[in-house]
Amino acid sequence: MAAPQGVRAPREERRRRRREKKTQAAVANQVVQTAGGGWRTRIFPYALIAPASVMELLIHIIPMILGVCIAFLGLTQLTIGNWTEAPFVGMENFIEGLDPAGAIGGQFYAALLRTVAYTLISLALAWALGMFGAVLLTSKVRGRGFLRTLFLTPYALPQYVGAIAWAFMFNQSDGAVNRFLVDDLGILDDRPFWLLGDNAFWVLVIVTVWQFWPFAFLMLLAALQNIPTDVYEAAAMDGASTWKQFTTITLPMIRQANLVMLLILGLWIFNQFNIPYVLFGSGSPEEAMLVSPLIYEQSFNYWNFGLGGAMSTLLLVLLLVVSAVYIRLVMPKGKQLND
User: What is the pLDDT averaged over residues 187-201?
Assistant: First the structure.
């Protein structure tokens, strides 16, 4: 039997008051917990990034600082045993490395110019292949999934594995390249030495492009997929050719992604050490000597760590200046990536 209206009203009122008290108690408890655990709340985000920060400090920051300090010391084979007491030589290592009339300075400038040429050629070819692959896979072509996996294979392989495979293929006596060109096609009469002389530079470019063009392809493919198809349809209705659409729609709309990709890829290629080291060993041929292998040669082959540190510092400053100028020119102050 239902309770009278006069009895039901006070009962509902009591229930409402109990609910309000429970809510107030829960809020008060939360406030107390937050106040008591405030320091834990503030420290927790830093605790999450602490392992990565420590590893970054140990692997990159501290070695970089030590390298800069070593550049001002006469650290050689004679003083490496007690490197903390190596004599301070000031700017002598920098002067020796920058003197174009000296043997070391001449090598450094030649390697720097060669590295710039190597970077520009490799970057241009990697960008062209990456753009071609990205445009191809954004069109309605069969087997896009298979082609995407195939294109990304060089980037998925470790650099050392890929470089070792290329070193075997370019071997003079029984490499696949000479076997194909000389034995199968008969294009060449003699088996050239691909890893020596002028050929070594172009082998370095080929292996570098093969290794890095999938990164350009991946970045450009992601940028192209953000372009609305309606834009191309409207341009086609207006009579724009495929090349016109590419130059007036595709390139402008992926400009910012293009600029970031070129900066990252350019720095990777310019600092490349793994590929020449695997292809040529600890001593690259003069025609393929880049800055990073030259620094390694001076430091670990000739035990002149002070000079190697000075070259590393000069390279660091050069890349910082070039990167800052590049960012300032392509992304003026206050301009965002999506502007």
Answer: 87
